[in-house]
Amino acid sequence: MVSYASDLARRGQVARRPDVRLTGDVLAGALDDLATILDQRSLHTGGTPTEVFAAYAADHGRSLAQ
Predict the structure, then answer these.
(1) How far are the Cα atoms of 16, 17, 28, 61 from residue 35, in angstroms, in the given order?
(2) CA atoms within 13 A on the CB side of 5
(3) Contact call for residues 57 and 64 (beta carbons, < 8 A)
(4) What is the b/e burial string over 5-39, where b = at least 16 CB atoms within 10 angstroms of the residue's CB?
(5) pLDDT in tens for each of the 66 residues of the chain?
C-alpha cells in the first residue's frame, strides 16, 4: 500500500488543482515522516524513504511492489 500511496502523492503534487497539489504534498510529508520513524526505531538504514519502505517490506517477507 505504501507504493500506491507514494504514487498518489506524486500524482497529486503535479495536479492542476491547487487543493489536489496540497493534498499530494501533505501525503508525501506524512510518508516521509513514517519512513523516518520506521528507520529511527527499527530499521536503521539511513536511506531514503523508498529505501526504508523497501527494507521494511523485505523485513516482513514482501517486496515493495506487493
Answers:
(1) 27, 27, 11, 18
(2) 16
(3) yes
(4) ebeebeebbeeeeeeeeebbeebbeebeebbeebb
(5) 898 999 999 999 999 999 999 999 999 999 999 999 999 999 999 999 999 999 999 988 887 665
Q: Three cell numbers at 40?
A: 529511527
Question: Is residue 54 packed enough to be buried (19+ CB in 10 Å), middle (13-18) or exposed (0-12)?
Answer: buried
Task: List, as one string, the DSSP characters of 44-63.
Answer: -----HHHHHHHHHHHTT--
